[in-house]
Specification:
This protein is an alpha+beta fold. The protein has eight helices and four strands, in the order ααβααβαααβαβ. It has helices at 8-15, 30-40, 60-69, 74-78, 95-104, 110-123, 129-153, 166-172; strands at 52-57, 81-88, 157-161, 179-188. Strands 1-2-4-3 form a four-stranded antiparallel beta sheet, sandwiched between helices. Helix 5 (95-104) packs antiparallel against helix 6.
């Protein structure tokens, strides 16, 4: 049986495109960006450690600097804001804060909290740094996709940018040693239609067993 996907969610998913040309005069209030980020962080995360953080760049002069770091991609400078998604390699160090909040909000009891904290503190420090970076990158992908859809639902457009100098970014924004940049998300109002894109046939990418 074939089902037609016509809900509002599916419309948002289909309408979201990567915009290259933004209206440089469009602005988005800090409070609205904060609301979008709060919703985005409902996304799943490994062990609920939420190994992400964000830098929201709205200052025009700082965006010009960032545009150079991002290989002069014009959407960086013309967007209303650029949201840098960072990975936190040592996110496990906040496990007690996170799971204490879980108890306070009624999601679990003290015994589960204590077992989870003990297990996390026993396991995560032994995981190699590269593996913890991979965990953070995976979580960043989840929260970033959620942010793209939320922005579109609110009438804004986005472009994800992976092609930037991550070393220079870390230096310019004084990232601590346990954080690293993963992706930039340009956010604003499109000034020109985005290009569509094709996808490979499903039978080339899926196996049903």
């Amino acid at each position: 049986m074939t089902t037609t996907l016509n809900s509002h969610l599916y419309s948002v998913m289909k309408d979201r495109k990567s915009v290259r040309v933004f209206d440089p005069n469009a602005t988005i209030a800090k409070e609205e960006i904060a609301e979008m980020l709060k919703l985005a962080t409902i996304a799943p995360s490994s062990s609920n450690l939420q190994s992400w953080s964000f830098i929201v760049i709205q200052d025009p002069e700082v965006k010009k600097e960032l545009q150079v770091i991002a290989n002069n991609q014009v959407q960086v400078g013309d967007s209303s804001a650029v949201i840098a998604v960072l990975g936190n390699i040592d996110a496990y160090k906040k496990v007690e804060q996170i799971y204490t909040q879980n108890v306070a909000e009624g999601h679990m009891d003290e015994s589960i909290k204590d077992r989870t904290i003990a297990s996390t503190n026993a396991v995560y420090p032994t995981i190699p740094r590269e593996a913890r970076m991979n965990i953070a990158s995976f979580d960043a992908g989840l929260v970033s996709m959620q942010l793209l859809l939320i922005a579109k639902e609110k009438g804004y457009d986005t472009s994800t940018i992976g092609g930037f100098d991550k070393v220079k970014f870390a230096e310019r924004f004084d990232l601590p040693s346990d954080q690293f940049p993963i992706v930039l998300i340009a956010l604003g109002k499109a000034a020109a239609p985005a290009y569509g894109s094709s996808r490979l046939p499903l039978d080339e990418v899926v196996r049903f067993i």
